[in-house]
Amino acid sequence: MTALPAVxxxxxxxxxxxxxxxxxxxxxxxxxxxxxxxxxxxxxxxLVASSIALVGFGxxxxxxxxxxxxxxxxxxxxxxxxxxxxxxxxxxVAIQFFLLAPYVAVESVRALIGGERPDETWVGMALxxxxxxxxxxxxxxxxxxxxxxxxxxxxxxxxxxxxCAYLAAALLVGLAGNALVGAWWLDPGVGLLIAGVxxxxxxxxxxxxxxxxxxxxxxxxxxxxxxxxxxCAH
Length: 234
Prior knowledge:
mainly alpha; 6 helices
């Protein structure tokens, strides 16, 4: 059997890379601003209502905020073109998932065993609903940029935003179920879901998930023309 010739990955221009990197940094600043508000409101409302799922959601917001700071650091100054900075940022983003899981899992199991019933929290439900709308917009935008510049770190942060949206939807179901029909067990159940998904996403982020675009991250340099490959057109 004749081996197929290797196909070189398409390359993007330096100007395009810089433009997309700056956009990724701006999106991370926007995420950080929202996560600061979301985390503070969720943790406060969760403590008042004794909702482990809501507190866990707030902690997830704080962790995602740190991940956003990592991406801002990654694309600032000379680190914009540093493969070492990319690897460090990728690992730091992945670690954030693992920080969340143990606390939420333990507290959720404790709440289930003890039969702790959270109070109603309409503030928490409104917050979860807003995240369901906003987070996919940020997550999809970041993942598209990540595919274009081959940044697993940016891809990981975008996945965290998507995870936040999924968890916000689950949280909304749990809080509404408790408020409307007294299904208190939905709250710690959602907490366990948050912990499980965080571990899964953390493992995938640690391994890295870039795209086929060549960039300074793989030592292939830049091209003078913009990338026109299918994976860059997402």
